[in-house]
Amino acid sequence: MSQEGPPENGGTDARQESLRQEIDRIDGEVQRLVNQRAAHVLEIARIKEANGGAFYRPEREAQILARVAERNEGPFPDQDMVRIFREIMSSCLALERRLRIAFLGPEASFTHAAVQVHFGHAVEEHPVRTIAEVFREVEAGTADYGVVPVENSTEGAVNASLDQLMGTNLQVCGEVALRIEHHLMSHAPDMQSIRRLYLHPQTQAQCREWLQDHMGGLEWVEVTSNAEAARRATAEPDSAAVAGASAAEFYGLPVLAAGVEDDPENTTRFVVVGAQWVGPSGNDKTSILVSAPNRPGSLFHVLQPFSLAGVNLTKIVSRPARSSLWDYVFFLDLDGHQEDAAVQEALEGVEAGGAAVKVLGSYPRAR
């Protein structure tokens, strides 16, 4: 009985080779177009330099990325396509000048991740030890922009950042909303071999229930950042850290348990601070600081003008004022740009009620 040979696959191989050749052709065209885009960016830079225009335009970048998402037809998800264009834009800008970004360090922290989400990787990253240092670096002009956390969906406001915003002349130029996923990581072979746990106090608060259920009998050591927790766990085989995926990758720590945060929607909001005013992008937010007289009805008179003007408030947080005991200031976020007629009407109404208003900045809404 004769045995049949393998099925013919010449047609399949020919089709694969044809597709590979087409991919190579497309790659060459993409590369040519990216370089053509970069050449136009450099020409615009020369025009801006001659006319004294702004070097970096956050509102312009936000508009470009919004159009990228709108015209995307797949199969790439919108967020992946936006990420690709973010890196192209970052690299094009770096041909003119590489931005220097100060952020609450160290490297591999969530704030570091927020820098890369907002600015891409073609920037000079400058980690510093405290939120106050971030503001000082930008105020002194040794950094172009700074990135700091301002609130977490689980733990609320980051008061150190709000306190700095009270006294600075810097503008809020942008925001990043970053989904926060915490992982248990260690060189230990399993969770039963862990004797010590390093973690940041905010991380502990965001993972409290899981940690009590699974790590309750261990020694818990608080550290200054998630990245520092990972660094310490790297040096101690019987220790573990709770931190983000970037810290696990940066320090080469295996993840023993992923997603240990109690709230699956755990998100931290970061703001970008800089010296420049940001124009309208078409989808903006405005942050303001209001100091109202300490008398009955003050808060009502602060809030009423926004309702009358049809302006939506998205956040209100109070902080003790530095001027006198038991006086408070209010941080408000609202929909719209400070140039919008409705926003201007609301702010004028707040001031007419006897409160002092400081506009911290208008900026494109985080995607």
Automatic annotation (TrEMBL):
Gene3D superfamilies: 3.30.70.260, Chorismate mutase, Periplasmic binding protein-like II. Its EC number is 4.2.1.51, 5.4.99.5. It comes from the Bacteria. SMART domains: CM_2. SUPFAM superfamilies: ACT-like, Chorismate mutase II, Periplasmic binding protein-like II. One of its GO terms (molecular function) is prephenate dehydratase activity. The gene is pheA. Catalyzes the Claisen rearrangement of chorismate to prephenate and the decarboxylation/dehydration of prephenate to phenylpyruvate. This is Bifunctional chorismate mutase/prephenate dehydratase. Pathway: Metabolic intermediate biosynthesis; prephenate biosynthesis; prephenate from chorismate: step 1/1; Amino-acid biosynthesis; L-phenylalanine biosynthesis; phenylpyruvate from prephenate: step 1/1. Residues 10-100 form the Chorismate mutase domain. PANTHER family: PREPHENATE DEHYDRATASE P PROTEIN, PREPHENATE DEHYDRATASE-RELATED. Keywords: Amino-acid biosynthesis, Aromatic amino acid biosynthesis, Cytoplasm, Isomerase, Lyase, Multifunctional enzyme, Phenylalanine biosynthesis. Residues 287-364 form the ACT domain. InterPro entries: ACT-like_dom_sf, ACT_dom, Chor_mutase/pphenate_deHydtase, Chorismate_II_sf, CM_dom_sf, CM_II_prokaryot, G/b/e-P-prot_chorismate_mutase, Preph_deHydtase. The keyword Secreted does not apply.
